[in-house]
Amino acid sequence: MAVPVAPGRVLPTLNEDGTHRWLRPKPAPGAWLTRRTVVAWLLIFIYVAIPHVFIGGKPTILLDLQRREFTFFGTTFLPTDTLLLMLLAISVVIAIFLASALAGRVWCGWACPQTVYMEFVYRPLERLFEGGPRGSTQIDRAGTWFHPRRFAKHVTYLVISSFLAHTFLAYFVGWDQVVHWVFGSPSAHPVGFTIVTITTIAMMLDFVYFREQTCMVACPYGRWQSALLDNDSLIVAYDYNRGEPRGLGKDRTGKGDCVDCEACVITCPTGIDIRNGLQMECIHCTQCMDACDAVMRKVGRPEGLIRYTSRAALAGKGKHFLRPRTVLYPIAFAIVFGGFVWQLTFKDAADVTLLGAAGAPFVVQQDGKVTNQLRIRIANRSGAEHAYTVEVTGADDVSVIAPMSPLSVRPGHTETMPVFVTLPRDEFDEGVRTVTVRVSDGASYAADFPYRLTGPIRESHDDDRKDRRNGPRE
Ligand code: SF4
Ligand code: SF4
């Protein structure tokens, strides 16, 4: 059966017959590539270094899913810090909105891990092993399933992906644990082994096969652009007023500055022609800026035919820095992030939860007194180890037995201690008595919590109830 052919190119990475069109962009050296290389390697260094850097004895970032504790730059967030985490997450979202309104897809082109690793690790290695875009195309055309240079490239990709996957795992369990696991049997740590294996496979699939298609068809951020950008947002754009009508040849009479050399297309990692206007596939990587500037220098025209600008500026409408979204986003960010900082600064040094005992709510002792068992869960949110004690007040003749008091809790950790509170039976009213539980570390933390103890309902009350049910006695 004949394969249907599309009337035109649907995606830069698809041929008209639906087969994969491999992109082999030619690097375009220039000032922007130098700047991006510095930023990219700085980011890679930070990513690899973070699991080895400690602040105040804690990892810089540790996402301990098992214990549900997240440590960021010396501060540990516990499951009870929902408000803090929510404020932080909303701040990040607003910051992305603001960055997009001001600087377009600066994240995509300069800082996204997909771009950083693809353009500064995996693609340079491909050029090294396969001999540049021409060498890769020759290997593609050879149609052989095994080629020594491509095989060597894939083995190198595998080693790098595996290292990056182990580094990724270190963000969740710590580097020491990763090293311990690496030298142990996978059967002793199946979860860690599975995470590393899946991450390595995902990275291989992404950087060997899927590549720039991740930005075009998988990443939602590119699709938000129509909502996040406005006419005054900074974008990488072709100056059509200056460049058109484009044309080859030395005689430039009646022609614009674009010599139609296609250097900007050949270098584009997403395979688009920026002269067609702002496109979802453009990750604003600036490679076409370097390529075109080099051509402009050669033909003796000013640089910047492709440059950072805005659609409003290109249309001759000037620059408008102050606009609704550049005013509202910073205000929203200041409010939400200010709330986060406020909460973080003034949060309690401990998080205490009072829980009843499982099973019988109370026990009546032989002497008639009533004992309730509590469990007091203490999360130490300060930066030092503390010993917590418990007192109970608010009732006469109360006795407290807390076998684990004082309870030592390490910073960022949570411990639970049982407490037995005994009261005379007649302290209960309708089977309930509210007392005050005071938890203190003797230094930076002390707090009172009301707690309802339960006990037997007094017989006189039972009689009264019966009376009420049965009506007045004769
Ligand atoms: S059009 Fe230019 S800025 Fe956009 S992805 Fe291609 S090379 Fe990068
Ligand atoms: S690199 Fe510049 S001159 Fe060459 S085709 Fe692109 S825009 Fe035109």
State the secondary-structure class.
Answer: alpha+beta
Number of domains: 3
Total number of helical segments? 16
- Bin the helical content: 40-55%
Termini separation (Å)? 102 Å
Biggest beta sheet summary: 5 strands, antiparallel
Please mark out the parts with pLDDT under 50 across 5 or more consecutive residues, or reply none. 462-474
Q: Compute the number of strand runs.
A: 16
Percent of residues in beta strands: 15-25%
The ligands bound in this entry are: iron/sulfur cluster
Shape: elongated
- The overall pLDDT average reads 88
CA radius of gyration is 33 Å
Tell me what you see in this structure:
With 474 residues, the protein is of the alpha+beta class. Helix content is 43%, strand content 18%. It has helices at 31-49, 82-103, 106-111, 113-130, 132-142, 148-173, 175-182, 190-210, 213-218, 220-228, 240-243, 263-266, 287-299, 311-314, 324-346, 459-470, and strands at 54-55, 58-59, 61-64, 69-72, 75-77, 235-238, 306-309, 350-356, 362-364, 370-380, 386-393, 399-401, 407-409, 414-423, 432-440, 446-454. A hairpin with a 2-residue loop joins β1 (54-55) and β2 (58-59). α4 packs across α5 and α4 runs antiparallel to α6. The model is unreliable at 462-474 (pLDDT under 50). Residues 238, 243, 246, 258-264, 275, 291-292, 295, 305-306 line the site of one iron/sulfur cluster.
Short note summarizing the structure:
With 474 residues, this protein is α+β, with helices and mostly antiparallel strands. The chain contains 16 helices and 16 strands.
Comma- or semicolon-separated keywords:
474 residues; four-stranded antiparallel sheet; single chain; five-stranded antiparallel sheet; binds iron/sulfur cluster; 3 domains
